[in-house]
Specification:
The protein is globular, with a radius of gyration of 15 Å. The termini are far apart. It has 128 residues and is of the alpha+beta class. 34% of the residues lie in helices and 28% in strands.
Length: 128
Amino acid sequence: MYAVEHHLTQELDSITTARDLTRRALAESGYTGLHDDALLVVSELVTNALVHGAGAPVLHLVVGPSRVRIEVRDSSPRLPEPREPGPQSGWGLNVIERLSIRWGSIPQGDGKVVWCELAAVPAPVWAN
């Protein structure tokens, strides 16, 4: 297992930093799932923390060859609520729900953690 925690800045550049850290963690852990899915999910979680949360977000990753857990903590106690996706917004949590095997949010201190887990799908076994 590979674990990393990083305190991001309260700027949109943090999305790029989070993606870079995630890309490195996926490669170093040998994660066999779709890296692009994990990168999209981390982008959505960090974006939501920056836009709808409070304070500078904290990214926490735990990655192994077949599973990745992504957590983003911020200082807002307001838990996320999925919205109907539309032209202007509402896609983030819907994307996270579709790409992860499970996700949720929990209060932590004065804020919250929004988390999700992705799993590598085993390759199909072909019968001869």
